[in-house]
Amino acid sequence: MLGAGHAPPYLDAPILFFDSGLGGLTVLAATRALLPNAPFVYAADYAGLPYGRKSDEELAARVPALLGRLVERFQPRLAVIACNTASTIALSHVRAALDLPIVGTVPAIKPAAALTHSGVIGVLGTEATVRQPYVDDLSARFAAGKTVLRHGSPELVTAAEARLRGETVDPAVVARAIAGLTDQPGGDAMDVIVLACTHFPLLLDELQTAAGPGVQLIDGAAGIARRVAQLTAGQDWPITASPGLAAFTRSDAIPPPPLAALRPYGIGRTETI
Q1: What is the DSSP string of 135-166?
Q2: Catalytic residue IDs
Q3: Is 121 in a helix, a strand, or coil?
Q4: Global pTM value
């Protein structure tokens, strides 16, 4: 077993946020709103991006191994897998391998089922996430009697990464993603879309425009942040906040984003691992 064990964490022990890329920044932002002084490390597996096109077997091996290295290096008090794809495939493997609290990210189907008036919900994620039996289970448990449409859009992940690098997003990419749901039988009645990839809220305005005013978009970032706050309740934090670190696995194809794009999330330095 790896990790910090169950002893009280030391004051500067960070929260580790992990994602394939920059989508987990949406979860980081929600968590910092609740725990503004919490030290953190944000880790992005650029060498493995995009996760949505990898096999389940590959991710079930890759994610626990990489998180094990990160936990040994940064000794966090808690780790957040801020990635729906990694969570739906590898969460149980990670929890078996690491001896510290692990918070996963799952599609917000339960709150979507409570919000819908038409009974038709869309789940927009990566190809890997939307095919998972986990989504079947969530739909059966929390959206019984509802129609749950799914669409996987790897293009949106690429577009979200580009947006944070300051590049322009092609509206056609966003339109195709929404059409992947609305063009399905019953799609014209859909009134809630679950953003089942942490990258997608980075494109919230574009997605809302494409979906129209009658469709509500929801994601799980606030719920994840509340869970982190619950699990760390009563723990000690520094008196003042310090800039966080963003660590990127090395990729020849994708350079780390400029630091200016990360500073709004409280990140003050980057490194390649």
Answers
A1: HHHHHHHH-TTSEEEEEE-HHHHHHHHHHHTT
A2: 83, 197
A3: strand
A4: 0.90
Q: Are 128 and 51 in contact (CB under 8 A)?
A: yes
pLDDT tens digits along 64-117: 999 999 999 999 999 999 998 899 889 999 999 999 999 999 899 999 999 999
Counts of helices then strands in the chain (DSSP H, E): 11, 10
Contact present, 222 and 17 (Cβ < 8 Å): no
Per the CB < 8 A criterion, the answer to whether 53 and 154 are in contact is yes
Bridge partner list, 191: none
Identify the CA nearest to 45 among candidates 196, 183, 211, 249. 249
Distance, in Å, from the CA atom of 267 to the CA atom of 261, rounded to the nearest integer, reads: 9
Q: Which residues pair with 51 in a beta bridge?
A: none
E strand map for the chain: 15-19, 40-44, 78-81, 102-103, 120-125, 147-152, 192-195, 216-218, 244-248, 267-272
The sign of the CA dihedral 120, 206, 80, 93 is: positive
How far is the C-alpha of 194 from the C-alpha of 220, rounded, in Å? 9
Q: How many CB atoms lie within 10 A of CB 173?
A: 17
